[in-house]
Automatic annotation (TrEMBL):
<protein>
    <recommendedName>
        <fullName>JmjC domain-containing protein</fullName>
    </recommendedName>
</protein>
<feature type="domain" description="JmjC">
    <location>
        <begin position="1"/>
        <end position="120"/>
    </location>
</feature>
<dbReference type="InterPro" id="IPR003347">
    <property type="entry name" value="JmjC_dom"/>
</dbReference>
Amino acid sequence: MSSPSAQVFYHADNQPNALWHIRGEKKVFVYPRREPYVSVRQLDSIAAGYADEQLPYDPAWDASAEVIDLKPGEVAWWPQNSPHRVVNAPGEPSVSLSVEHRTTASTRTERRQRADFHLRRTFGLTPPPGKWLDPVTLVAGSALAKVAPKQRARNERAVSFVVDPEAEGGVKSLA
């Protein structure tokens, strides 16, 4: 549930999602899954847990976006890792349900991205995007991805407020 005119900023999800829309109206902007919208290194870092899903955004990219106008009862989905953003229409609250789903192919993509990240980071290798150099590299990268410690995403923000019904505006600053 979200407020009128609220938005979900430009990002790329690691897993495939479907957005089931229940109430209100919203626009979903889906961008090509290639540079300059997103790089292979960014997607690999997201899959490995070393970066959050937020990406740099340029409003000029909207000219290349597929725009989906969602009304109640409709659903939208887009290819795995496709950068996107969402803007609610003004006027009334919006209710949607975002559902993550996995397939054998999407799980394989996620594992390959994590392995590529760790091969690049640990050995300085530059795997060709979406391809493996050889079976040994596949095994080494997959093993590294499984044993490498997860690191907090660099772009995570510290909590700066808490919900407090007694405070003015319903929130209290922690700063």
